[in-house]
Amino acid sequence: MRLNNSFIFLAITGTSAWAPTGRAGNAKRPLHTTNHNNRPFADVTHSRRIRKLHGTMPPLTVGEEYLPLARDMMSFIDSSPDPYHVVKTSADQLEAAGFQKWNESEKVGPGDKLYFTRNRSTLVAFTVGARYKSGCGFKIIGSHTDSPNLKVKPFSKRSDKSGGSSGMIQLGVECYGGGLWHTWFDRDLGVSGRVFVREGEGITQKLVKIDDAILRIPNLAIHLQTADERKAFGLNKEDHLAPIIASAVKDMLEGKSDETCTPCDEKDEFANDKEWAKKQEPVLLQLLAERLDVDVGNIIDFELNLFDVQPSSLGGARSEFVHAARLDNLASCYLSLRGLIDHVDEGGVEEDSDISMIAMFDHEEVGSSSTTGAGSPILQEAVKRVSSALGVESSASLYDTMIQSSFVLSVDQAHAVHPNYASKHEKNHGPKMNDGMVIKRNANQRYATNGVTGLVVRELARRAGLPPVQEFVVRNDCGCGSTIGPIISTRTGIRAIDMGCPQLSMHSIRETMGTKDLTNGLALFRAFFKDFAAVDASIEG
To answer: Could you tell me the residue ranges of all domains in the chain?
Structure first.
């Protein structure tokens, strides 16, 4: 979720290794039965041990049937530390489910399962119902692939050769989005993203994910702080967030601080590459080259961000929580992806007369105003291109009918009530974790929800036998964040609702959500793809 510019809203949100959980009999996507260390679920064993010792312990608050889906999402998140990996992971799983990458000049027909990407950081995937008829609508779930993080600056070198007075080598980093930056201190940090490599006459993009603890931002010891500094954490984002990557003394002894290129000849056709390399931290380039198995001199650019290397985990005495990085908004990306794949696996395409679509946008956390954000023409063009490929756009009246028959679920994480800061929520609109999905409303149109769109989702949940949908509004004395719903509905004219799973610690380096809410969310998305047309027809326009 994006921050309001005037407020900080404190809520108290290669090849992929992830494979979506399958249902019984689906050998393509087996259930996970072990944790990240290849051991049985420690949390389940712990709960059983408690019940054995105390006898009267009540049953699991969150049953074991919710755990495979939760762990599967954890694997998805751990495989996706940046938007490029999110898109690669998602595309791999779409192809495993029978989707094909769409050449957007090609025709589209009933029964097709297609996807396309933009900048390798935004993805759109869709199915065309086998019973499709001209003028039928789009059922769209929108989410975003980005999360607040620290990005490596274009020129990464921060320290001189000696490491300055500290004897440490640091990287220059830039704040992306509205992170809770104090949570990045004293964490084991890796680096991921994409690297541009010169190969022969061409330039290739390679994904990189270094999940070793190569970086760290240490806190200042309390003994070195003044009394005033101890009372309030004072953070200068330029001076205090630079991570340590190596010891300068050790690095010089091992010969790893030397320049990575020779002096540049003005007539050298690769002089620009060498000048660029001079402004990069050699240790970083060497690590990237080793991981990618390329020559250091062939690395000519990168887009990298830092991430916490600690894996996601199940938490709480009865495994009722998921603790993970980037729940805002990879939980929504995961659920929308699973919802569309399940729609295919369950035969929904054969029974469908509409177009079912997911759209994962980049740059939501910084306003969506980019060529790959929700503020770009991507979704509007996708709707037009698909409808044109189906022969609809030639008729203006049919196209208008199609837009009026369409609907967008803008899915972004919601703020659960924080037990230590319950007063931060409006007293009658405080969502709870593990208690159902959340509809977000704002009278000033920071969210796209209105009475009709909210009712559609409530009715979908009712018909699917899900818990009643929760409602969220901010207090009148608090600023309200926003997300992609209003942007999409404004640009496309399609009805939209803003909603999501409730969570704590939004924009922290590590966030928390309810295990059961994943199952609730997936069930609602599957119901949306299956039953939206019937629910929409039942509500008077």
So the answer is: 42-147+325-538, 149-308
Instruction: State the pairing for strand pair 138-144/355-361.
Output: parallel
CATH class of domain segment(s) 42-147+325-538: alpha beta
Asked if 66 and 322 touch (Cβ cutoff 8 Å), the reply is: no
DSSP bridge partners of 174: 151
Structure confidence by residue, pLDDT tens digits, 179-204:
999 999 999 999 999 999 999 999 99
Separation of alpha carbons 492 and 383, rounded Å = 9
Whole-angstrom distance, CA of residue 429 vs CA of residue 431: 6
Q: List the beta bridge partners of residue 301.
A: 196
Task: Look up tokens 């946008």; give the residue.
Answer: 361
CATH code linked to domain 149-308: 2.30.250.10
Q: What is the DSSP string of 349-363?
A: HHH--SEEEEEEES-
Judge if the upstream peptide bond of residue 329 is cis by omega within 30 degrees of 0: yes
Whole-number Å distance between alpha carbons of 95 and 42: 33
Question: How far is 468 from 534, CA to CA, in rounded Å?
Answer: 19
Residues near 249 by beta carbon (within 8 Å), at least 6 away in sequence: 163, 167
pTM: 0.87
d(CA 273, CA 271) in angstroms, rounded, equals 5
